[in-house]
Amino acid sequence: MTHAPTETSPRGSRRAPSGRRAAKPPRRRRVWRWVTLSLVLLLLVVGGVGYWLYSDLNGNIKGVDIDRAIGTDRPERLPTSGQNILILGSDSRAGDNAALHTGKVAGARSDTALVMHVPEGRTEAVAISIPRDTLVTRPECVKSDGSEVASKQRVMFNSIFSQVGPACVVKTVEKMSGVRMDHYMQIDFAGFKGLVDAIGGVHITVDQDIHDSSSGLDLTKGPHKLDGTQALQFVRTRHGIGDGSDLGRIGLQQQFMLALLSEIKKQDLLGSPTKSYKIADSLTAALTTDSDLASLTSLAEFGRSLNGVDPATMETIMLPVAYDKIDPARVVAAEPQASTLWKAVRSGEDIPESAKKSPATGGTS
User: Fold this and answer.
1) pTM value?
2) How far apart are CA 304 and CA 46, in angstroms?
3) Nearest-angstrom CA–CA distance, 165 and 144
4) 317 near 24, Cβ under 8 Å?
5) Tens digit of pLDDT for each residue in 112-125?
6) N or C: which end of the chain has fewer CB within 10 A?
7) Span 175-185, mean pLDDT?
8) Collapsing DSSP states into helix, strand and coil, what is residue 74?
9) Residue 80: which of 116, 119, 123 has the closest Cα?
């Protein structure tokens, strides 16, 4: 019996997990909220800075015509599906990102990817993160230059962004989930750094020394106040955490998210016009959206529609994944959990607890 070869990330293969541990309780499943929070905060802030700053901020935003690139080969919009936004954190090595210890690999990958689902009524939200090491079937896509790319199995999810472009990432997610993406947002590393610096830093406490030459993070056990560069290193570090895989850094990302929420609440950023502008300016400069949202007016209108969503109560779930049987350094969607999860999103129903359990944990306990 033969198997299709695994397409590896440009970064190469990662160390295989050392064990197959049972999934943790919900604490470990709430992952990557920092990207969601940053973008929700951006929308809320942009909605309140006022149109007198329109020209300064509007020119920052870049747009991608996702609808034109994908065409009609998409899931239908269902009346029960609410709003679904695909959010990518880009790890481009270009421009301001080059100085952020992001590595020396050319191009950009989707370092973080999640689907934010806002049910009808928009009073709550759930974010479903897709691990970057997930092997998926990439559908037939069209690049920005008009050239066609054939469908391919067992492709690293985070490689699609650099090899084919953001529209193909959207199409891939829609094919694997059956969920229509209403909007697309992308923020790069420099934007995340700017957010934390605009806030004035975030306080965290680590329970062990962390020395990661890859991310540049060097922290001793105890309390720290992280600036933007250190915060970026903190949420990206994986060496010395768990088994060194992408799944292993989940705990640190959750910890930072909670600290960031606390800092925002303490400073009442939405009541400070100066800080609100700094945040909006840094994030819009690093933001790419679908063409429908690529203006301050559209972002403000969309942000106001999300006023009832509280990021602090947002549920975040990792797409249930299992270690790949051929390449144990990669993961695949775990069934039937993944199908049950996506079905609940499509129908607007509560996601069953059984659909949130992931066999792969990244060696964390």
Assistant:
1) 0.76
2) 9
3) 7
4) no
5) 788 988 887 767 78
6) N
7) 95
8) coil
9) 119
